[in-house]
Design goal:
Strand content: 5-15%
CATH superfamily: Glycogen Phosphorylase B
Order of helices and strands: EHEHEHHH
Structural class: mainly alpha
CATH class: Alpha Beta
Number of strands: 3
Number of helices: 5
CATH topology: Rossmann fold
Strand order of the largest sheet: 1-2-3
Helix content: 40-55%
Shape: globular
Number of domains: 1
Distance between the termini: 33 Å
Oligomer: single chain
Length: 107
């Protein structure tokens, strides 16, 4: 898991119109996440992570720098955000099984 060694993760593809990339990888590693506004491919999980305080959405590279500095300069806020992100992932596990049960009426 490449994110486990990081202090903060910027998830690319989100400051340009490419739909963003997977925010779950750093979140499950308890790493605070920063993303841009273009997260069409991951809108639902982005909303959950931002609401939990585990992810910051930035509009520009200047905002990105400020967000990185915020978490690098405040280890407790960084730790808390990382834990909140991991909690979001843990609480939402099992989505595929739920969908399969609903769609195919599996028990």
């Amino acid at each position: 898991m490449r994110h486990a060694a990081a202090d903060v993760a910027f998830v690319g593809g989100s400051l340009v119109q490419s739909g963003g990339h997977n925010l779950l990888e750093p979140a499950v590693a308890a790493v605070p996440v920063i993303t841009g506004p273009n997260i069409d491919n991951f809108a639902g999980i982005s909303e959950l992570l931002v609401s939990a305080g585990a992810c910051r959405m930035v509009e520009s590279t200047a905002d990105l720098g400020a967000a990185v500095l915020y978490w690098l300069e405040d280890p407790e806020a960084r730790r808390q955000a990382g834990c909140q992100g991991r909690d979001v992932v843990v609480m939402n596990r099992g989505a595929l099984e739920t969908v399969m049960r609903t769609v195919f009426n599996f028990s």
